[in-house]
Amino acid sequence: MTYVHDTISSLQLSSPAQSEFYQAVEDVLSSLSPILESNNFYKKQAIIERIVEPERQIMFRVPWVDDNGNIQVNKGYRVEFNSALGPYKGGLRFHPSVNASIIKFLGFEQIFKNALTGLPIGGGKGGSNFNPKGKSDGEIMRFCQSFMNELYRHIGPVTDVPAGDIGVGAREIGYLFGQYKRLTGRYEGVFTGKSLLWGGSLVRKEATGYGTVYFAQYMLDDRGDSLQGKKCLVSGAGNVAIYAIEKLYQLGAIPVTCSDSTGTIYHPKGIDLKLLKRLKEVQRTGLIEYLETYPEATFTPVADYPKDGHAVWRYSADAAFPCATQNELTENDAEKLIENGCKLVSEGANMPSTSGAINLFISAGIAYGPAKAANAGGVATSQLEMAQNSSMQKWSFQTVDDHLKQIMKNIFISANEASHEFGQAGNLVLGANIAGFKRVADAMIEQGVV
Ligand code: NDP
What we know:
By secondary structure, the protein is an alpha/beta fold. The protein has 18 helices and 13 strands. The protein folds into three domains: 1-53, no CATH class; 55-187, 3-Layer(aba) Sandwich (Rossmann fold); 207-374, Rossmann fold, CATH 3.40.50. β6, α10 (239-250) and β7 (254-255) form a beta-alpha-beta unit. The radius of gyration is 21 Å and the shape is globular. NADPH dihydro-nicotinamide-adenine-dinucleotide phosphate is lined by residues 164-167, 208, 236-241, 260-262, 323-325, 348-350, 375, 378.
């Protein structure tokens, strides 16, 4: 697979120090040999060289004034990666770890994820190294307004439609949209993940977590099994993790863990979802407070995590749902999960498993749902929000949820069929990468050298 090596070497020269981006590119390209090596069609079109280069990258200064009157400066990003299938679509992340590499890896993944949904959406991603933790509402609002003072030039309902991601929820979307409207004078569907009061869609908040669990259910159906009674490990305690836990309970499973940036909770009786929502959605506190209600649960602080991985994956369980952040499940974690009897991994977060971990899951033959397939429910429901906005309609919870289920089923079917067609039955990494790539690459070719 010299083209993988050649592409990464060339990216290392043209876009230095972007390790997460190289990791995402390698993950996709490594799966493509069955279609790239069997014919010269894509090679002649220089499709790999084109697809790894974003159509446009915007980087900008975000100055704002904190509550003490001090001027703060952050960096803003929007990477408009690929518009072959529709307007750029992908979230904004506000987290201190954000840099060009992280935004490019997320944007690159987003292209194929969006293609897999079968919906008319291109791929993009953005964000800032701004840390919302510990900031007042006023500070968050001033930051969002300053961020939008630049971003509004580049987005629009038929050009680029951002949504939330880590650190960007309904509150931030509200402040961002308010400033967009003020600057442009237009009330239009330029964001998804909006409040239900002004254009949001039912189920959007729940969609990524629910979708990840639906995907797990379809993987198990295919193996003649179900989630009923399964003990599940979930990482994260944010939007994706909370609604994955909710859906796991609805389908009869028992989620026994959650985690945040301070540590991991293990509660063998099952995580108290109501308490978790109160701590993280209302009080916005650290997970250690869970122990005030349940002293019998275990809290492992980050400082006590194993050197080679994450405490959450060291408990024995039937299934694992990584729902926090990238590279949070290492090769050693994967080894322990398999040793302890885990038979399924469905990824809610983006690129949560390292390449070494993925290889172990594939060779062990467990049901493994890679992020770009398993967490596509969020962006798919965003597209349903766009459809409701542009037709000025509001669909019921049931209608949106039915669409979401069907989309997750279709994604499973297309990834699974591609894995069979290309000789690695059940390898959904290969299947999802090939199915997503083919749709984007063929659309790009039909649109000429642009
Ligand atoms: P949130 O900000 O709502 O929650 C993120 C959770 O992960 C929080 O509990 C946070 O801890 C924890 N976390 C974040 N970064 C780290 C870190 N470096 N180390 C340890 N814990 C961390 O984000 P979401 O739930 O929206 O996103 C989670 C993942 O899902 C991300 O990978 C995102 O890209 C992906 N995703 C999200 C979609 C969505 O619709 N929201 C759609 C598709 C993918 P703390 O509470 O302490 O901050």
